[in-house]
Amino acid sequence: MAKPTIIAIEEHYADPELTKHFPPGAQPGVLGPIGQRIQDLTGVRLKEMDEAGIDMQVLSHGAPATQRLDAGIAVDLARAVNDRLHETCKAHPARFAAFAALPTADPKASADELERAVTKLGFKGAMIHGLAQGRFVDEKDFWPIFERAEALDVPIYIHPAAPDATVVDRYYKEYVKAFPAILNAGWGFTVETATQTVRLVLSGVCEKYPKLKIIVGHLGEGIPFLLWRIDQAMARPGNVDAASFREIFCRNFWITTSGNFSDPALLCSVQELGADRIMFAVDWPFVDNKLAVDWATRVPLCQEDREKILSGNAKRLLKM
Questions:
Q1: 16 partner at 20 to 30 Å CA-CA among 32, 258, 277, 301?
Q2: CATH number of residue 228's parent domain
């Protein structure tokens, strides 16, 4: 049997000109061994892609990218960051595509930069990381971004970033020293991003822009497992939503396998959303490529569904 094409769509890098704007510790992914790897664009990255059998990565800047910077810095910086990423993709067009970084402190400028990145640089959409200067991006001030994404027919990838400081203080501080992952992939990322996803569904942005496409990583941050319960609760008397939570989530959202290689979790997601709504991702360099590929190529799915997840769905959604 011929080797299936594998496209990984949540694979991170770090631009040194951007990361120097953050104080020490504010972006831990650029420090230590991970930092050396995330700043590598063509050496170890390509070697490990080849070893694992990954044909292409869709590159995105690691969290929080330009989102916690003031507009006066973020707008020009995001443009320069995207231009530099474009040069890498242009040099390796068969191996790399890209999601844009957006200066969310200025939503109108973000919409314009999304359009420039898509129409001039060939990017496949954009990635948004967590809160935008303490605000959830479902607030109507940010809707120009989603309006432009719908018009361009490209997705917005909703990705985690560190929880708000007030949340850390109230919910996690007692355990951060002994279990630092409680703030990120161990729990905090999931809660932050699932909350943002639920808020997007409830906000009305998907009714306003019904062809909007949103991607959520890590097998949907637990939402597929909870979808029936959320939908049933939101439909109880006293809730005003006209469209059901399930209807919106299953129409406007796609999920990826990034960093969550569980057979039961994947099969639950397939049963709730269908194989057409799931795409392969690793979450490199935070997660090993080979671990992801070995899992994805042996999961108990039919060959047709496996190939959809490994690359077919990404090709359709991202027009690759």
A1: 258
A2: 3.20.20.140
